[in-house]
Design brief:
Helix content of chain A is 45%, strand content 15%. The first copy, chain A, is an alpha/beta fold.
Amino acid sequence: MRAVDLIRRKRDSGELTREEIEELISAYTRGDVPDYQMSAWLMAVVLCGMSRPEIAALTEAMLHSGSVLDFSDLRGRKVDKHSTGGVGDKTSLVIAPIVAAGGLKVPMISGRGLGHSGGTLDKLESIPGFNVNLSLTDFRRVLDACGCALIGQTAEIAPADKKIYALRDVTGTVESPALICASIMSKKLAEGIDALVLDVKTGSGAFMKKIDDAANLAELLVETGKRMGKKVVALLTDMNQPLGRKAGNAMEVAESIEVLSGEGPADLSDLCQELAAWMFFLGERVKTVEEGKKLSADLIASGKARQKFREIVGLQGGDVGVIDDPQRLARASQTLDVTSRADGFIAATQCEQLGTACVVLGGGREKKEDAIDPAVGIEFHKRIGDAVTRGEPLCTLHYNAATRLDEARRLVETAYKIEPEKPKTIPPLIYRVIGA
Amino acid sequence: MRAVDLIRRKRDSGELTREEIEELISAYTRGDVPDYQMSAWLMAVVLCGMSRPEIAALTEAMLHSGSVLDFSDLRGRKVDKHSTGGVGDKTSLVIAPIVAAGGLKVPMISGRGLGHSGGTLDKLESIPGFNVNLSLTDFRRVLDACGCALIGQTAEIAPADKKIYALRDVTGTVESPALICASIMSKKLAEGIDALVLDVKTGSGAFMKKIDDAANLAELLVETGKRMGKKVVALLTDMNQPLGRKAGNAMEVAESIEVLSGEGPADLSDLCQELAAWMFFLGERVKTVEEGKKLSADLIASGKARQKFREIVGLQGGDVGVIDDPQRLARASQTLDVTSRADGFIAATQCEQLGTACVVLGGGREKKEDAIDPAVGIEFHKRIGDAVTRGEPLCTLHYNAATRLDEARRLVETAYKIEPEKPKTIPPLIYRVIGA
């Protein structure tokens, strides 16, 4: 194999064989193909696309670049959920305990915040002491002990993805359904799971703004997972406004605990129960999705899901006191209300801007090496369709340093579209289920 | 400027400003933009193209990445010729002495063989002692002394092109009219010339197989040169069969001396005189191209062009004895005739294969570090339209090592298309002149 020939073939919209893709990825992972050839190939993939068999081959090559975990000796089916990311999307923190409380195993490998979107690892780390950097041995131990463990990608898991992802980030080659699919699925399939529920988000706060693009990606993910012998469905869900009422790491942990306690906002609670229901269904814990929803609701009402979260936090070194007293979480020293400039109704939000505002306050990273302030965030008081009067607060910014407060405020102020008439349609929580 | 933003813009078929292109190229040249970002950008350019202003900006940025020579203090207009390359294309060796003998200055910076095509530097180096690696000071001295100097690209000339060219070669990003244009023109404009004649080749032995692609490139080259204030024309010429009767470094030098002596094949002689005529015309040595052709013919007939070649060879350290006795050039020890398998007429040649056969015999490089055997080559006995009988020699291979003789013979045998009827059309030498 000459890498340049494979680059040229893809550039001319040709197809690569399974063997060629495997060799390219393994040569790149061991450093025999340099970054500059890989980035040219990645750009050719972004612009010329990949066939379904090519995507499957790429996913497998990336998956087998590292360890594939095997939990088959642990009792119970292994299921996971993956979201393509958005603003206020904290469902992992709620779902993982619910599903583990229901008797399935949830070996969840998550990521950090990316661009305007938050990340499960950053949220968990706002719980004092919580360790997301478990060794694979400890990962298995915690999973075995309580049915769930939540960690970050280790060096053993899909090293090809780690290397390619870092390269894509700096070479303008992120936005490719084929590459996104291979990246997600190689990591998730390495978890040794039987089933996977995907939450593919679309709208102004998602990476896929257009519903058709999101649906395409969802189909690709489902097909790729099924080719690899896994049970997979994708829920196409709305991200035209934040999920729940809070964005910001510690604030999202607090809100997750509310939902696990049977409280919290309806949209977040509904989506969590829906996703958990599909996990129960694919994990063969229930016969129907409806039954799964009932089970999820019961596990919340009985306090078992909340108790499971306490167990996980404890086993991963976190302060379990935060479950009963979320005040123990970091809190920002200052708040500022952003108010409406007009009477009317919320017609739409530029949701990515709301996420960016949270990053600007210090809740996310603009560069890899940036430190995160777990305390800061935004509380959202209004949702699309809500009436609002001039001077009424739209959101409250929670901040510590005022350095970039103006920038965050401007982002938030301009993110709300207020119109005199109530909007005719309000985005649904879930558009449809793909692969069921 | 963030390089990734410029990559993303080009990937989305957007346009970059002059300043952005300048900054990208200068940051890459000084090593602040890494290869892997440049190769992603280059691939985006190959697939999404560049606007005319972008191409002009890229050419200028590459030109100004190094020294731009200034020969304005030397008497006489400075003119040059550049060919996009082919098989048996030795016109530089003939034209440079003709035009210098006619009183213009020819500061010619040439390249080496690339792929199946030969290179002026490799041909010149088959003259014992000939030094193509002159310093810029010696380049000027020889140019001043005899009106012409023939060297390779130095470190001072367009270093951005040198770096980008090496990267393109290994990242499948050679085939872009925009990048080819910027590469050629940045080097040629650095020569401090007033006028440039381009020989853009098309056909089975050219890099641009299709005449429309070649015409597009020719227009791009001409427009870019004119934008920079130079007089430029492009001759769109045929490369569906080798130019002249010989390919191979020393053999091509011998054939060039034949033409300079008023002998040699008509196609080569005609094209050289036509190109020289355009150089005389653009260099304002003559009032019409016709007059330029007459001047070229006179300079050959009078022996002045041949005498000028002797001067150049002498000033660049070469053995001037080869001019009178081409037998002093390296000669292969063995020959093999490749004969026709049928009666009929030559209908077409797969000319790139003939060039590759020459490389296989050792006359060119397959890898950068390969050594060249100056003696080997191919003599072509038949041209398109010629009658041929079964068993009659089509070509003679001149070789030293028999190691890859079979491979070369197969390439040559299958390169000739022989049909029972005489072909209705025979490719013309020159299709048209662009930019006149």
